[in-house]
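BACKBONE STRUCTURE TOKENS:
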Amino acid sequence: MVANENENDTDTSGHKIKIKCSSCSGWCYSSKNIRNCSWCQNSVHVKCFKDNLGCTSCCESLIPGFYATYYEIYDDYNKLNSAIYNPYARTSRCSLIGDAMANEEHQDSTWSDISAFLTHCQYKQQRNVKRSTSSQLKTFSMNIRSLFKNIDKLREDIEIYDKYDILCFNETNCTLEKLPNGINDVTLNGFHEPYIQNPIRTTGKGGGLAIYVHKRVVDSDKIEVFNPNPEPSNTSGEFQFIKLHQCKGYNRTKIIGNVYRSPARKPEAFLEIFKNTLHNLGRHSRKHMTLHGDFNLNLLKHSSNQACQNIIDIASSYGFIQIVSRPTRITDHSATLIDHIYTNNLEDTISCNVLTTDLSDHLAIVTTINLDNTSTSSYRSASYNQNPAQTNVRSFNEANNHKFRDLIMEENWSVILTNTHDADQQFDCLNSAYNRIYNAAYPTKRQSQRRQNERVNPKPWILPWLEEAIERKNQAYHDFVKEPDDRNQLKYDRLKKFCTKHVDKAKNIHYKKFFEQHKDNSKKQWQMINSLLNRKPTKPTSIKLSDENGQVSTPAAVAEKFNDHFSNIAPKIKSEISSRTTFDPGGTQGTLRSPSPNSIYIKPVTASEVQDVINLFKNKATLDTKIQPLKIANSCDNFTTVLAHVVNSSFEQGVFPQALKTAKVVPVHKGGSKTDIKNYRPISLLATFSKVFEKLMHNRVINFLDTYNILCENQYGFRPGRSCEHALLNAKDTILNSMSKKQVTLLLLIDFSKAFDLVDHSILLNKLEHYGIRGLALNWFKSYLKNRNQFVSIGTSESSAKQIIYGVPQGSILGPLLFIIYINDLPQISEIAKFIMYADDANIFLTGENINEVYDKLKILSDVLVKWVDNNGLALNLKKTNYMIFSRQRNLIFRDVVISGVTIERKTEARFLGVIIDNKLNWSQHISAMKMKMARYIGVMYKLKKYLPLEARLQIYHSFVQSHLNYCSLVWGFAAKSHIETLFVKQKMGLRAILPGFVNYWYKDGTPPASTKSGFYVHKILTVHSIIVKNALVFMHKLKNFPSLVPPSIKKTIPNSAPIFNVADPDSSLTPQWSDEYGKHPYNNSVFYKGPLLAINRYSVAATSLPSLFNLNIYKRCIKSMLIDQQNEGIADEWPNFMLYNIAGLRKSKRNINRNTDNNLVLIP
């Protein structure tokens, strides 16, 4: 069948053509977009021409069984369907949001849950959508492109749309006054009269909103239309909100929002209204809110579109999550995600799917919400948990602590001191006596059985009189439901207002007392904060696993399955390695240089050293006894003396106690399906005394390695005085140095598979001996690695023990040190590459004059790299290994990089030690990721602002906002001013979220929000500008006066011609120190390639006395105080009052400063 195409865009009279499409009733203005159906000869859009068959009407009427939509038969639909919005996915975090804090387990789990939800957003057909149940609320939303024109089709398919509870339509083009029969022209059977909002536009088409509520959901008198935004409407955006009280009989209120933004309007004005609307919805934050609409912002371009990033930031700031991940408008040439759904309660949102319907050129979105929330009720039902399991608990109160200390002092430890047996037996005697005293002082008690109707989580702030008032309020509501008259409603409203007011007040008093009581116990404080946020860890007893044989649910069987899985990971990978290559332990000698001529001497342990080590331990979970009693025993000299004696016996005999070689493994869910065993990571818990033995040996080994410079200089992981920031500064300097020379740099980011678990013990022991760990020390490590085993614990159930034959002990103190020794010879495989490593995170830099030279070097390097990996029994994860190219050269021709038959992906941005690095080094993606994380935390702080005292809110602010601004600020902090200013705006939003009297919106009378300047000053908080400056000054202070605190590799990046803050001579430091070599040698190879040069007041420097400048901690406090004063003195529109210069314009800056007549300004790097 052939379709004819019009040749011209004008008719016979010379006017532009305007032809109506017979399928969608839209207008065609170009012949390129018009086809003629060979069956009916009608003109149709190209997009309405079904796969070269004909128009929609003809295909449906003439082709048997033709009912599929265009999207189902379109050849390129699979390609369009592959586009997905999911910034929380682990593979996308590097370019969009990053890890919620690398060390925050819960945040990583939260992002994984959101990512999993977005992944499950799929396309569905109408026939695959089930009718909503009595415990669900199913919503249908779409851009209908004229409600009046499509109302007949809706009525014809009413059986289809009857399965939905809520219908939200935008761009209805529907004005009630213009309808022939008024609202009756747009009613639907089974639904209440629609809630119509006329379009704001006074001319043209577009706009308008409508919400339909099914009669089975709620009676019409339980539906409330409200407007949370008091500002007058404008053409930037349209909003419509309704409240549904007692949905389907459940005592819960749902808020449904309908939003539309015209694509012809600028997004900035709309985003401002959207932010104010979400802020005003804050008083309803406890209710489940869902916002539907056509926002005309394509989230598939989130990483490159600033408006898309802003709307997600704004929504996140107020606790909303966008849950649509598939394109919602698909044409024959594009796929865009412009229809969004925002919710503030992902837990009760069951699913969100995109519906393939040709009712409009937009696809519909179906969202299912759970109404049955009985599982989170404050009270147990009469049939719930009739016989709860009893557990053994210990009480660590002051009385028991005194009893424990007295028993330790009274114990006769001389028996162990006179014991001449081996170290194993000595430790068994010590451990037996310690456990006996531990059990006597802290006896176990079985938890009493709770009454059937007792509260699961009693609310301590509810006093008896307040509880009685709440009961009266509940009874008033019951009376109102039975007899909904004005008198009962007034009574209920008054009691509800009274209870809400006094419950909030009681909560505030309770939390204030709690945080004052535990002001020195951060663990207790964060437990309370997490409980307020419902961030409770998954109980191990609830784990259920699925496999090919069905579901495993009993705790004992689940524990065994986990232990089998965790213990077989390394052997399986080892077998895969041996199947594709010949494992040669002797091959490792090729990369090892001459053996170290020095051997380690194990210095005897003293009682005071044991005390110092134990005092540094944190109260973390262990295999057996808690750390707290050990610290109590540590204060007893007789105990530390005998413990030092046992440790010395262990070191002298080269024996690690066998009783300390067992690990308890607790599986922790890391995201995804909770029934998939691969979605759990093992957390190993070791014995308390094992930490003591390991830490004492660790101190001796690391001191030996540092004394003789045995470890690789560019290894920054798990070494004192080194950090991620140092590694990133070195990497940044390497890239900038080559770019300044117009060279090309290739960065290969290597990912190892289960690196710590695959360490071969025989190779490790050979390397230890090679580096000087010989004699008794080597025998001790042999004993330490031999005959180790583990078991998995889930609740009260434990698996059998399994032996571990590979890897370094997880969760141990010595494990990371042994691993960096194991890969210490990796940089020696090639002299053409530079290695920068942080533990198992290895990054290789190759530099050349052109890109072909770099690729040739990479080919040579990859061969020796694969050989080294095979010889050492490790495995590369080539799917996660990628590379980047840095260069100022243009028109680069890239080539495919293949390692071991796998093509390595080239990226323009990647995550490098928690910082997103891009190929232009402008740090825009990292700053965008920081803003998104901060926005989510700001939403959290808004929720807690009402209850928590100011001190607690400040603690949350420092943890959630300031910590991100501090992390590696010397690396990204010298980005463009516009990027830093956006961070500053987000920082001020966070401060307003915790301080009383501050808001993030303009007032009705046009008054702007109050300045946060006083908030920064009163609470001694540094702005992002001051944070960068402070860290730069502290870094230079260390470099000049405490050089031992700066790794040598970082010292090399600072040129001798740099102006230095010389605190040894304060008077001379008040003038710039420029060397004659400066003009000859540009400053391009410095870590401060892009700033800052700081102008500060003379009196601020002079106020800090000379002795304080030599004490690092006092110096930090003095600098912070000085910067806070500078912030407060700055002018509002120029605040903070710092002069920041780019190094590229350094000479010009120098001339400008020299002309300055103000003697109070000095130049300090």
Summary: The mean pLDDT is 77.
